[in-house]
Structures are given as structure tokens and as C-alpha cells.
Amino acid sequence: MRVRELSADHQYLLAQAAKLLGTPVRAIQLDSDLWPIIEPHLKLELCCGLDQASPLLAIGSARRERKTVFGLELYRLAADDEAIRFVRVITPIDAVFTRPLYNFAAVPVTQFKRFYRALRRLQPRRQQQSRPVLADDDQQRLLNNTVEFLKHGRLAR
To answer: Total structural domains in the chain?
Structure first.
């Protein structure tokens, strides 16, 4: 597929997402590590197809296992005092539907910054490490042994 064709497809998908949300949208690629973090905070409002009413769904053997293989998913993300609505666009790469060619979020242009901040807040923060708990004598000996060894190539006694 050529760049021109990919670009035309992308514009078409953005237009479909904008039509569903009723406002201009901006595309955002959510990486595979981020999606599981935000998924518990999402409310699925609607699944629909492209140029048809219903999406193509994959149904699994687990009781409630289903996912959209081809279509649009409308989500609501609870953020601050007002929810952010966005569309997840999913299209297959080939006739066997092994991988998505397009899998991105379409966020209203006016909500982009709020969406970004909400995603950053949901990501786990790095834990701050505290200093090791050592007696003063042990701490001084450890410091002397490492610093003295690096400075002079010998252990302090």
C-alpha cells in the first residue's frame, strides 16, 4: 500500500470518528503498555462498523470475551470533573484479520490536552527509593570503603 493510499485511509477513518463524536478529532497512537493501564477506567458506550451499523466482532470462549476486529469503539474516560469521550479505530491488515493495520484513538481536538494529562496521571509513578537503614558506624564504614577504594585503590580501616 502506498503512502498516498494510507493517508487517504487515515483521513477517512478520522472523518468517521469525527462524525461519531460530532467534533473534529486528532489521532493518537496508544502503545500496548498504556492500553491495559487505562482500560479499567474506560466505559464502552458504543461499537459500530464503518459504512455499516454493526462492527465485526471476535467472540472468545470465555464468558464475556469479545473484541472489535473491524469498526469503531466509542469510550468515555473519567477525568477530573468531566468525562472525555474518544473513539478507538480498529481495522484489519488482511483478509485473515491477524493484526490491525489501523489501531488508534481519535480524541476531540478541544480535549487533547486533558486526555494527555489524564493518561499521564493514570500511569504508575516511579517509587522513590529511601536510603538504606544502617547504624551510623556501618554507614560511615560503607562510605569510607567505597569512596576510599575508588580514590586510592585500597580499603579504609
So the answer is: 1
The region that residue 37 occupies, defined by phi over 0 for left and psi between -120 and 50 for alpha, beta otherwise, is alpha
- CA distance to 109, 118, 129, per residue, from 123 (Å): 22, 9, 18
Cβ density class 137-151: b for 16+ within 10 Å, e for less: eeeeeeeeeeeeeee
Side-chain-side CA neighbours of residue 92 (13 Å): 14
pLDDT tens by residue, 89-146? 887 665 555 555 677 899 999 999 999 988 888 887 765 667 777 888 888 888 888 8
Q: How far is Cα 45 from Cα 1, in angstroms, rounded to an integer?
A: 33
- Enclosing H/E stretch for 109: none
pTM of the model: 0.67
Give domain status of residue 133, yes or no.
no
Report if residue 120 sits inside a domain.
Answer: yes
